[in-house]
């Protein structure tokens, strides 16, 4: 890699973590490189910096664009496409969560609902577990959607309250809204 030592360490770490998060190591490294870069980079700069093939860079950029984590940026006087990450860290986190929800949570809910509709073919215990899991995931999804609607500043304030919110809930009482059935 043709990078300063701290950049190299960050990029290598992100590549390693990417493989644990279910993405290709190179995709994680490309993202990390773009994340740290003050300027938008073209595919040739990425290949040179990371020591990867042009096709690897192209495939990684395509995947990152599909996840909406990398943006195409036109550079005056340049014919090559340049790429960058959003500047707002909260936008990046929100995008990651939304994309993971679309790819992982939504299909799981669809499957659980379909299985629940076939309930007669399940034993009572299995059916109850599927219903319980669906309700829990729907509750978490509703919470996520409520948080996603919050302005970033309000979300940050809410997060800084942390466990103090549990104390408020204890003082208010044991009210629990009915979950969807």
Automatic annotation (TrEMBL):
InterPro entries per UniProt: HTH-GbsR_regulator (IPR052362), HTH_MarR-typ (IPR000835), MJ1563 (IPR026282), WH-like_DNA-bd_sf (IPR036388), WH_DNA-bd_sf (IPR036390)
The keyword DNA-binding belongs to this UniProt entry's keyword annotation: yes
Ranges annotated as spanning the membrane: none
Domain (HTH marR-type): residue spans on this chain: 22-79
SUPFAM superfamilies per UniProt: Winged helix' DNA-binding domain (SSF46785)
UniProt keyword Cell division, yes or no: no
GO molecular function: DNA binding; DNA-binding transcription factor activity
Entry superkingdom: Bacteria
Entry keywords, A to Z: DNA-binding, Transcription, Transcription regulation
Homology family: Belongs to the GbsR family.
Name listed for the protein in its UniProt record: HTH-type transcriptional regulator
């Amino acid at each position: 890699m043709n990078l300063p030592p701290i950049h190299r360490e960050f990029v290598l770490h992100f590549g390693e973590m990417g493989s644990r998060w279910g993405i290709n190591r190179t995709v994680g490294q490309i993202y990390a490189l773009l994340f740290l870069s003050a300027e938008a980079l073209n595919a040739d700069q990425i290949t040179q910096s990371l020591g990867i093939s042009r096709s690897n860079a192209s495939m990684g950029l395509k995947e990152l664009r599909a996840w909406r984590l990398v943006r195409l940026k036109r550079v005056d006087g340049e014919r090559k496409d340049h790429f960058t990450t959003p500047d707002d860290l909260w936008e990046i986190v929100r995008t990651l969560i939304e994309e993971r929800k679309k790819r992982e949570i939504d299909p799981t809910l669809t499957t659980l609902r379909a299985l629940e509709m076939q309930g007669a073919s399940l034993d009572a215990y299995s059916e109850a577990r599927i219903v319980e899991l669906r309700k829990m995931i729907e509750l978490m999804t509703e919470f996520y959607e409520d948080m996603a609607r919050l302005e970033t500043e309000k979300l940050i304030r809410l997060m800084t309250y942390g466990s103090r919110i549990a104390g408020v809930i204890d003082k208010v009482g044991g009210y629990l809204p009915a979950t969807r059935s």
